[in-house]
Amino acid sequence: MKPRSTAIIAVAAALAVTITGCSASSSAPQQAAASKDPYAAHTVSPGFTTKGGNINVLMSSDFQTLDPGNSNYVQTANVGQLYYRTLTMAKETAGKPPTIVPDLATDTGKVSSDGLTWTYTLKDGLTFEDGTPITSADIKYGVERTYARDVYTQAPQELNAALTDDTYKGPYTGGDLKAVDTPDAKTIVFHLKQPNPDFPALASRSNTAPVPQSKDTKQDYTNHPVSSGPYKIASYERGRELKLVRNDKWDPKTDANRTALPDTFTFSLSTAQATISQQLIADNDPTALTLDSNGALQASDTSRLTDSAVAARTASGILGCTDVLDINTTTVTDPDVRHAIALAMDRAAIQVQYGGPRFGKLTNSYLNDAQVGYVKETTDLDITGKPNLAEAKKLLGGKTIPTSLTYGYSNATDRYKNLGTVLQQNLKELGINLQMVAIPAANYYTTLAGKDMPDLARAGWCGGAASGSTRTTVDPNVGPSLDGTTYGFSNIPRYYDAKVSKEMYDLRAKNGTSEEINTDWSNLYNEAMKTYPLVPLIRSFTNSVVGSKVRNAQVGYFFGSIDLSTVGVEH
């Protein structure tokens, strides 16, 4: 998944993590303290069923994209479930990994006896917003678009990597995606390189959102993707406002997953996070919520969460999302230098910048013990989170040390800038001057994937949140490209090792049980981590305050913010 948008995208799987040094504290939410679990989930006003009203979503920046074919971001996946549907869906439950359920399809897929084909049958009564029937060809076309990497630089690739056709370049260059068949208007068949018991989770990715070929406007499709869900875009002014209204061609009888309670959603796309935090806590707009990570809460406002009235309006939950510091291995090429950076980091101080234990647990891995095939990490990160400067300096003895490095951060989020300030102080002890580079939030992950990637950058991943497999974290973040010749497109640290990356590439075609295959992925992750392409930081626990009229507000394990598919509003 996927990166987090003010945190990345997103893909699908079930994250948990090896935790270090976190215990219950007096700052834990009241509902969590009552359960003796500082990370217990809390849903605001569950059980609400009344339709009508408007939800006002306050955001500090625009979406990276609204195009399901160009989205590797959890914010897009969250709002996307309002206007597009997929073959299957990762259905959220607060505090727990999602469950894969049928969406456009009648079931989660039928697999052949050899495990190499998955077949889906579409439900009756499915239409686009203009009343045109949704067919298997529309879904195949949606998948085909994600192969056009020259057009869609952030297209999710996990499903594509599982399919047999590695040479297809998308629908705009001619030719047909032979890995996907549509024998009739209601049937779609996927051909896999090797059996993949986790394929139903891949089918929940935005690749399978139907796109009518006649309405495909390429890069401009982000301005008005054609709706297959309960809402459609009424207006969209980039950087200012997005308005969703009901799609009267959506048939609720075909959709057991979305309550579609509000009449409209209004997204304000340029509100400063400090303002969002203050407005939500003060309940200035009783119909408001936010999708910004950590509920846009500022460190100066977190003490208010202990107020009983505010606590009652605070949705919270542990996430399948982990933040890391990615190290650009093409510019910081010496593994010992990267290891020294890791050892010099004061991760406990970084946790404070996130708001303290209330907002997440220190972790030593991108993986967690809830994922299929998890193998405990083998790297020697400082277990307490405190810096080990003596060991870091020992590693650098006789080495050519970079005198200056750059750290990129999203300019919409203060804690990411503050993280850089901590790093500046840490790396100064090693004789390294760290320069801060502010990156516009709307272009953040595009920048990290491009030629302007800085030496160090914070990133987040919620990709372990739907299938429960280690592969859906390892392959996107440190895996090779589809052809195995270089690093993958969402591999921000640009990790590529001739031996380990080849083993990852070969593993994509290996047969075996889910446990066996994912254990291999976990072992290869641990092997890659011996050279420190990234440093795990925080497994997120989100507190997100909502307005006093908002109902059914739960924090999505995968989305890392309020799940828009469940909310309602008193009116």
Characterization of this structure:
By secondary structure, the chain is an alpha+beta fold. Helices cover 22% and strands 20% of the residues. It has 15 helices and 20 strands. It has helices at 30-34, 74-83, 136-145, 158-162, 199-202, 273-282, 308-312, 335-344, 347-353, 389-395, 414-428, 444-449, 471-478, 498-507, 514-528; strands at 19-20, 54-58, 88-93, 96-102, 110-111, 117-121, 180-184, 187-191, 231-237, 241-246, 264-268, 288-290, 314-327, 360-363, 404-410, 433-439, 456-461, 534-545, 550-551, 568-569. It has a seven-stranded mixed β-sheet with strand order 1-14-18-13-17-15-16. Strands 9-10-11-2-12 form a five-stranded mixed β-sheet, with no helix packed on it. Strands 5-6-8-7 form a four-stranded antiparallel β-sheet, covered by helices on one side. The protein is globular, with a radius of gyration of 22 Å. Keywords: Signal. This is ABC transporter substrate-binding protein.
